[in-house]
DNA sequence: GTTAGCCAACCCAACGGTAGGTAGAATTAT
DNA sequence: ATAATTCTACCTACCGTTGGGTTGGCTAAC
């Protein structure tokens, strides 16, 4: 596998059209959906003929898979860096949240397509390899949560449910964020760190239910 | 508009096939996606001819729209009931979370299709009317959050960001919940009430950052 | 004189939707 | 009571279009 097609710069006279192809495909898949985007649409956006696209790729599915894999690889790379860092679990969680939000916001097309369009039906044979990456990320997130709970710095809640809440909160960003909008990734992440780690309830307000009182 | 096609029982000898049609369509749209599901697929699942479907509906889009509207109407109906109830904002939030999770879990096909497949491109002209329902629900959620913040029972955080976190956490359920699985809607909601209202950080643990210390 | 990059023309399966029909139940007219 | 009509719930056969993908080249640069 060649180096990432979606990373910023490249070697001197690298293949420009191929990179443009993937970029345009991601944009159109995000705007219209994978199935509703035709190869003709992509060709038009590139200003070339449809047949020319097949000089660079074998099938339409390959485009989708490459996009989804790129997104998941970014997430896993950052995640594993953070998980391995010498930080207390609470800080790892903060960092993970920040990196996740930052990645989504600065690669919105990639992540939107990866999260919304990459389904077993659309992905065909490539489904499993990309899902393996997703699973690695989920495992890593849960490991951080578990570590925090064991060290007593995080409350003892269902690890999976907390993990899904994290992922839902963060991944849902693709549904409302506006790249040209007012909220920066840092603002978003900061508010959610606060919310996720402290909750919404006011510090002094209401009778706090003890963590385990519910299990009766 | 006739009474809900997706509500449980009906008049004596109501049209069975029509209700089956919508149910099957929702199931297939969820499993394969809207675009990847052909009218032939639906006909096969019903055991009738493709043309017969057009006795009940005008276009494929109408199926999608009806499904999406049904889901949003359930959400809004429950939401407005809760918003109007004589409860403190914190309890309203709890109730809203519970009702939202319960609705998703017991109408998984409807909500999955509504959240994943109902896009401007797929919905055509019907987009706006259904989005209006979604907006009503979001407005209602934010009003509860605002009320809580004004009364001092919820922390002063960005209302939109907290709302999106709520919606993301809850709506993401469609991505992982297993109707035959171990987690009941009540368990899920209970864990998230805890998480959303209290946060994950242990009560005694770590140096709590004062709510507004970050704004410098 | 090879090859990277691209193109015009075509293939054909599958799509949403339509035309027009029919068996039988239900309703109305005589 | 029965004959005529209408309606329900489907059917077979087809249409025009679009889809992903292929074939067989051309051309400019090295």
From TrEMBL, chains A, B:
SUPFAM superfamilies in alphabetical order: Homeodomain-like, Tetracyclin repressor-like, C-terminal domain
Matches recorded under PROSITE patterns: HTH_TETR_2
InterPro entries per record: Homeodomain-like_sf, HTH-type_TetR-like_transc_reg, HTH_TetR, KstR2_TetR_C, Tet_transcr_reg_TetR-rel_C_sf
Pfam assignment, any one: TetR_C_24
Keyword field contains Membrane: no
Keywords of the record: DNA-binding, Repressor, Transcription, Transcription regulation
Coiled-coil stretches noted in the UniProt entry, renumbered to this chain: none
Residues annotated as domain HTH tetR-type: 15-75
DNA-binding region: 38-57
GO molecular function: DNA-binding transcription factor activity; transcription cis-regulatory region binding
UniProt-recorded name of the protein: Transcriptional regulator, TetR family
Organism of this sequence: Desulfacinum infernum DSM 9756
Higher taxonomy: Bacteria, Pseudomonadati, Thermodesulfobacteriota, Syntrophobacteria, Syntrophobacterales
């Amino acid at each position: 596998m060649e180096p990432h097609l979606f990373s910023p710069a490249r070697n001197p006279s690298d293949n420009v059209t191929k990179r443009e192809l993937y970029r345009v495909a991601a944009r159109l898949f995000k705007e219209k959906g994978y199935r509703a985007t035709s190869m003709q649409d992509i060709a038009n956006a590139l200003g070339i003929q449809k047949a020319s696209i097949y000089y660079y790729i074998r099938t339409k599915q390959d485009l989708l898979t490459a996009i989804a894999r790129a997104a998941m690889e970014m997430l896993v790379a950052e995640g594993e860096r953070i998980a391995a860092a010498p930080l207390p679990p609470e800080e790892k969680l903060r960092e993970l949240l920040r990196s996740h939000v930052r990645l989504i916001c600065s690669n919105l097309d990639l992540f939107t397509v990866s999260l919304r369009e990459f389904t077993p039906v659309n992905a065909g044979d490539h489904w499993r390899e990309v899902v393996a990456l997703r699973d690695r990320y989920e495992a890593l997130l849960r490991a951080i949560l578990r570590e925090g709970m064991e060290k007593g710095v995080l409350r003892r809640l269902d690890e999976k449910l907390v993990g899904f809440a994290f992922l839902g909160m963060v991944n849902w960003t693709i549904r409302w964020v506006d790249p040209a909008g007012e909220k920066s990734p840092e603002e978003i992440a900061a508010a959610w760190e606060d919310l996720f780690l402290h909750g919404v309830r006011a510090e002094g307000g209401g009778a706090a239910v003890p963590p385990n009182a519910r299990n009766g």
